[in-house]
């Protein structure tokens, strides 16, 4: 880490201006990603006027022209001032728009509007007399953002963090019963149900709108081996009718959102069969902020935790562990050990996450 203590005032000012300007650029990038403008420019493949770009994207020229301005001053789009044309160099496609339809890093920028949506609520939460947290119902932009992120990781296939582990893949290929807790809009589960026809899949999520979308997805894919349920994670592992029902319980990017992750993890064993597997996927991080300096997406992850995960976990009545997404890999392992879930493997699942593989017995 660079020694920042001896940094000159003017150098900090310059560095800080880059931070502030990048924030504004990222917000405009989110617009380009969400409206498909990067894809349109990549498909056009050559310099075009704002009118031609707007027409190709099916958007209003005046807005597109303003957005192009933001992209030009950030050196994301190149401009020819004489001809009044704009051009996206091919070397920038992969970052901005070629994974499925949108680039992974451009999608990360779409997390900013998710945060803007609750900005005022979060300011109130900081105040001593303010509310404890923010209900997940307020995050209307969160499900499509999370889904877009999931889609870039999945690439139309079942989650690699399950299929890469031989014992789990073998179970999926036979006739296992699988539960995805906090399944969101259901893409991972539907891809599994499509590819592992002998197995039976269940997804549960507290967000009704997510489950509605998941059901539509399953229907449009004509899947007969997947069922979606609306419900709370903790209640799901306490269900009597689900006792010892599942061979695999999968929980991706959810545990840190919970009010009482300790009670949830304790309950997971109830719904697992004796030889069942619990796969928990959580943000890769160190518990101490200074140890995350080398992680290129750490600012995004801390902001996501501050604006989303932490206030969501504090929104309910009663005590909350207020874990936050960045509590660290060591703490995740400790929590699993505390409830007697034996973690036999933990490894990086993707650029953001670590997967923890546990067996009940
Ligand atoms: C970050 S998203 C992850 C979605 C999905 N697992 C994925 O990886 O794409 C977290 C999901 O967990 C759900 N969730 C949060 N707390 C929950 C709880 N207590 N019970 C059930 N679902 C919950 C949210 O509604 C959201 O869909």
Write structural notes for this entry.
There is one protein chain. With 361 residues, the chain is an alpha/beta fold. The protein has two domains: 9-97, Orthogonal Bundle (Arc Repressor Mutant, subunit A), CATH 1.10.10; 119-359, Rossmann fold, CATH 3.40.50. Helix content is 47%, strand content 15%. The strands form two sheets. Strands 5-4-3-6-7-9-8 form a seven-stranded mixed β-sheet, with helices on both faces. The protein has a two-stranded antiparallel ribbon with strand order 1-2. Helix 12 (187-195) links the parallel strand 3 (177-181) and strand 4 (200-205). Helix 2 crosses helix 3 (50-57). It is globular. The mean pLDDT is 94. The structure holds S-adenosylmethionine. S-adenosylmethionine binds at residues 136, 146, 150, 182-184, 205-207, 210, 232-233, 252-254, 257-258.
Primary descriptors:
binds S-adenosylmethionine, two-stranded antiparallel ribbon, 361 residues, 47% helix, 17 helices, alpha/beta, single chain, Rossmann fold, seven-stranded mixed beta sheet, 2 domains, Arc Repressor Mutant, subunit A
3D shape: globular
- What is the structural class? alpha/beta
Sketch the major β-sheet: 7 strands, mixed
The helix-strand sequence is HHHHEEHHHHHHHEHEHEHEHEHHEE
CATH class of the largest domain: Alpha Beta
Q: What is the strand content?
A: 15-25%
Q: Number of helical runs?
A: 17
First-to-last CA distance = 43 Å
Mean pLDDT: 94
Q: What is the helical fraction, as a range of percent?
A: 40-55%
Low-confidence stretches: none
Please state how the strands of the largest beta sheet are arranged side by side: 5-4-3-6-7-9-8
